[in-house]
Design brief:
heterodimer, A: alpha+beta, Multidrug efflux transporter AcrB transmembrane fold, Alpha-Beta Plaits, 5-stranded antiparallel β-sheet, 4-stranded antiparallel β-sheet, 21 helices, 18 strands, B: 306 residues, alpha+beta
Chain lengths: 597, 306
């Protein structure tokens, strides 16, 4: 064996060795039994996690959520001296923004111009000119997204997920990926809940009755108005139903009011009417429902699902900002013994306030409101010192734990909306892995059989190259700590198909040279030499497509692009360098008269 | 072993027939495209829910249950939405168009509704019931469509640029037109068959771009090589010779690629099927176009410029 052959052999062996070495942790981890996996120490687990090929959410199961700051809501919170014109502006802006991919503040500016809205009138504390105001509002939104990310990070950490990823996207979005999380409903609530805790005084029965009567009258007026319009002509049934008014929707439960689940949307419609809003604003009160439904036997002896309806003073006596700690506790005594509750501890300032509030509102009811849902509304019997309070009325221990987490982590400064969500159940993910692996093996087998059948001994060499392409590609993925996704598996299978191509181009060239009467040795040389430019040109253009995909794609697609890109590089290496070496080595040993190709 | 050797097919004699066929297919595709493409929730926004039941369910059954779904105090009639089997008769995929004023957690609400409405047929653990849940707001949908469109355009431009450098601008024009041809016809087949366009189909489109180009370049490379003897003149006979020389490679590669794609289609599972289908169509169209569009156009371009 001459020197250059030896060098080439060593280089190839070195790269093969590197590929196997990079793959070892993944293989070892795959070979561990489930029990052994459970017994791994934290360090070992961290080692395997960082060194093995990572599985994407679509294979492992989990949740991918894109949250966006509710910008219209943010603007609404920041604006002062709001009037009808502003409300209308915001409503239209909200609608436009929902369906457009234009930047929010660009739309904001356009809409303000279109509506001839004088921005300084509402945002004077943020600047005197339109540009100043928009700049300041943009800063506010950037600031809020940073705080949101911090809080969500906190919540996720306490929730206990292995390797969560939380990334900012653009100016007002955050992407959260929770691999392996099964309970999507729970995780979603945990991420999205604003966790705004408010303590509000419940209005007394008398003033509640007064306002119900007032709204009844207004609602009747509103119905008449709409009946004069088109509704009457087309939809008489519907308007008849609406005609029932406000009080007829309500059910008395003890001294509380309740509303049937089926009437919730009607209730919202009434409460959203302009003149009803005005009346509520004038009295400084609002209606909120309870957090969960209760079952009740109605007048007809049927079971009915109802929400309790509370009439509250629209000014929180105390908010979640004063919370120092929140823990899930099982209630020890009373009718609620054994039920999950959340024990809330306040800081000094909160404790003082709490003592003052409870002291001056004895025998009134105070509602504990979380994210605009009333959890309970106990009567204050005596002044409370020490800043402790308990939230009851929770469905499960899990719910209590989650509420404790979000209260500890703090409330979001602005609500967030879910813009995109992809949840993949573990069973579908596992199914994809097994089907993907199976099709890869079958595909590989068919391809190998075909090229051996077609190219005989040379086909063996090509098969060797294809198998090594796959091994090296997986090794690179492990080294790069790339994430293997389902499209990524498709990319692996495709690489199998395409890595054959380079071999085919070379073999066909060699055959051609042989047909032209060249000797085996010089046909191999000429074949490789001519095939290389073709292979490089053809593969590089595919590489361009892969690079563009990588730039554009999110999650799964990115995984595909990574595999495709490296697949091209590796298959060029195995086809041009590895197989060439084998041919050269064999022909250097002895003169071959006829090539098995 | 040889399938083909020393073929002397006069491909360019059928150039006109090729143009007519491609032209008809392309116009037909454009016409079909005007009638509409089945865009998935990735691009239109909406909710897609994959559910796994314990036993076989009928689509009608699910449809009935979906007639009145109450989420967040609002009532929805979702019985007219797309409901179909997903792999087996136990698994169902429901796709719901994005609606105005969808409540928070619409998807989960629907899952919960079906779960409680069909208690005998669902697994005990609700998390085992959900195969997948995807929700995309119309806003993100329009962003993703924009991105997909521009990614295909920018890939084409970059490739045009690369081929212009490596070959000649005339070669690049032929190659790019062949790609546009491939994408148009593949899209046309999508709109005809009503297959859904998703993010992974876009990935497949870009792979087709790469693949079809691979094929085209192998032939163009041959043409370039064979042109060296004839100077700057390009004879149809040179093109014929080049195509014939690379014919066995073209066929063997297409064949091996088709093998793996068919395996993916058969065993790859529901999630990967749209991807494999796109690739299947693309590989067939791409192989044809590298011969009849890229090379034939090159002949035409050279003829008119000389």
């Amino acid at each position: 064996m001459n020197n250059t052959l030896t060098t080439r052999l060593l280089t190839i062996l070195f790269i093969f060795g590197l590929g196997i070495y990079a793959l070892l942790p993944s293989i070892r981890y795959q070979l561990l039994s489930d029990d052994a996996k459970d017994n791994l120490s934290e360090d070992e687990l961290a080692y395997f996690e960082s060194k093995s090929i990572k599985q994407g959410l679509d294979l492992k199961g989990g949740i991918y959520i894109v949250l966006e700051v509710d910008l219209p809501q943010l603007i609404n919170t920041l604006a002062k001296n709001k009037d009808k014109k502003f409300d209308q502006f915001l409503e239209e802006l909200n609608q436009d923004y929902k369906n457009s991919s234009t930047d929010f503040f660009t739309l904001f500016e356009e809409k303000a111009l279109e509506k001839d809205l004088k921005l300084p009138r509402y945002f004077i504390s943020y600047g005197k000119t339109k540009d100043q105001i928009i700049e300041q509002l943009t800063l506010q939104s950037a600031d809020s997204i940073n705080r949101i990310i911090e809080i969500i990070q906190n919540r996720v950490d306490q929730f206990g997920v292995a390797e969560p990823t939380i990334q900012k996207q653009g100016n007002n979005r955050v992407i959260v990926e929770l691999a392996g999380v099964q309970d999507s409903e729970r995780a979603r609530d945990l991420l999205q809940s604003t966790a705004l805790l408010e303590l509000m005084i419940v209005k007394d029965v008398e003033s509640t009755n007064t306002i119900v009567r007032q709204i009844d009258n207004l609602a009747a007026m509103n119905i008449e108005k709409t009946n004069d319009n088109v509704d009457q002509l087309f939809d008489t049934n519907n308007s008849d139903e609406n005609n029932l008014g406000f009080s007829s929707l309500l059910i008395a439960v003890g001294s509380d009011l309740a509303i049937s689940t089926s009437n919730l949307s009607k209730l919202q419609n009434i409460l959203n009417q302009d003149n009803v809003k005005q009346v509520l604003d004038a009295t400084g009160s609002l209606f909120l429902t309870s957090n969960s439904a209760a079952t009740l036997i109605n007048d007809f002896g049927e079971e009915e699902e109802v929400y309790l309806l509370y009439h509250l003073i629209d000014n929180a006596e105390l908010t979640g900002g004063v919370i120092e700690d929140a823990q899930m506790r099982l209630s020890q005594s009373g009718v609620s013994a054994g039920q999950a509750t959340v024990q809330v501890e306040m800081n000094n300032e909160g404790s003082r306030e709490w003592a003052r509030i409870t002291g001056s509102n004895i025998n009134k009811r105070i509602a504990i409101v979380l994210d605009k849902k009333v959890h309970m509304a106990p009567v204050i019997r005596s002044q409370i010192f020490g800043g402790g309070t308990v939230i009851e009325g929770l469905d499960s221990i899990q719910e209590a734990e989650d509420i404790a987490i979000v209260l500890r982590a703090g409330s979001l400064p602005v609500p967030v909306t879910i813009q995109e969500e992809r949840t993949v159940g573990a069973s579908l993910g596992a199914d994809s892995v097994s089907k993907g692996t199976y099709s890869m093996l079958v595909g590989l087998l068919i391809v190998i059989l075909f090229i051996i059948f077609y190219y005989k001994l040379s086909g063996f060499i090509a098969s060797f190259a294809v198998v090594w392409t796959l091994i090296l590609l997986l090794g690179i993925l492990a080294l790069l700590e790339a994430t293997l996704t389902l499209p990524g598996i498709a990319g692996l299978i495709l690489t199998v198909g395409m890595s054959v191509d380079a071999n085919v181009i070379i073999f066909e060239r060699i055959k051609e040279e042989l047909r032209n009467g060249k000797s085996v040795r010089s046909a191999i040389d000429a074949g490789y030499e001519r095939a290389i430019t073709t292979i490089v040109d053809a593969n590089l253009t595919t590489g361009i497509a892969a690079a563009v995909l990588y730039q554009y794609g999110s999650g799964p697609i990115k995984g595909f692009a990574t595999v495709l890109f490296w697949g091209i590089i590796v298959s060029m290496f195995t086809a041009i360098i590895v197989t060439r070496f084998i041919f050269d080595y064999v022909t250097s040993k002895r003169t071959i008269e006829e090539l098995s190709i | 072993m040889k399938f083909i050797e020393n073929t002397k097919i006069k491909f360019m004699s059928f150039k006109k027939a090729g143009f007519v066929l491609s032209g008809t297919l392309a116009v037909g595709s454009l016409f079909s495209l005007m009638l509409g493409l089945n865009l998935g929730i990735d691009f239109k926004g909406g909710t897609a829910i994959g559910l796994s039941f314990n036993e076989e369910v009928s689509i009608q059954e699910v449809r009935t249950v979906m007639q009145s779904v109450s989420v967040g105090g609002q009532e929805f009639d979702l019985s007219t939405e797309e409901i179909k089997y997903f792999g087996s008769n136990k698994d169902i995929m429901v796709k719901i168009k994005s609606q105005d004023n969808t409540p928070e957690n619409f998807g989960q609400g629907i899952v919960n509704h079906i779960y409680t409405s069909m208690p005998t047929k669902v697994p005990e653990d609700k998390n085992m019931f959900i195969l997948s849940l995807g929700a995309v707001s119309p806003k993100v949908g329009s962003e993703l469509s924009g991105k997909a469109f521009w990614s295909i355009i920018s890939a084409l431009v970059l490739i045009l640029f690369y081929i212009s450098i490596r070959f000649e601008f005339k070669f690049a024009v032929g190659a790019i037109l062949a790609l546009v041809h491939d994408i148009t016809i593949t899209l046309g087949i999508f709109s005809l068959t009503g297959y859904e366009i998703t993010l992974s189909t876009v990935a497949a489109f870009l792979t087709i771009v790469g693949y079809s180009l691979n094929d085209t370049i192998v032939i163009l490379d041959r043409i370039r090589e064979n042109m060296k003897s004839s100077g700057t003149v390009l004879f149809e006979s040179t093109i014929n010779k080049s195509i014939n020389q690379s014919l066995s490679r073209t066929l063997i590669t297409s064949l091996t690629t088709l093998f793996v794609i068919v395996v993916l289609l058969m065993y790859g599972g529901e999630v990967i099927r749209p991807f494999a289908f796109t690739m299947l169509v693309g590989v067939i169209v791409g192989t044809y176009s590298s011969i009849y569009i890229a090379s034939a156009l090159l002949a035409t371009i050279y003829k008119s410029s000389n």
